[in-house]
Amino acid sequence: MIDLANRGDAEREDVGCGIIYGILRDSAFKIKKLADQEKEAHIRKGWWADKSGRQDRSSTDNYK
User: Fold this and answer.
1) How far is 39 from 61, CA to CA, in rounded Å?
2) Which of 36, 22, 25 is nearest to 1 (CA)?
3) Is the pTM higher than 0.85?
4) CA neighbours closer than 13 Å in the CB half-sphere of residue 31
5) Residue 31 predicted with pLDDT over 70
6) Are the C-beta atoms of residues 58 and 46 closer than 8 Å to each other?
7) Per-residue pLDDT, 55
8) Distance separating alpha carbons of residues 22 and 3, to the nearest angstrom
9) DSSP label at 64?
10) Is the pLDDT confidence value at 8 over 50?
11) Higher pLDDT, 50 or 56
12) Between 21 and 55, where is the model more confident?
């Protein structure tokens, strides 16, 4: 979304498009921030899969 907003803003032909691309960019950064926060919360709980795809479930009972 961020790349799309940046490309669109660079190629826009009027101010109205700039507003739309600005909203898209702001939304993308908000979504990214929320996703990063969720990822960190899952890592702290041991729910985040490592690069091999294995999950550390030892620190939680939520998978039962």
Assistant:
1) 18
2) 25
3) no
4) 8
5) yes
6) yes
7) 66
8) 12
9) -
10) yes
11) 50
12) 21
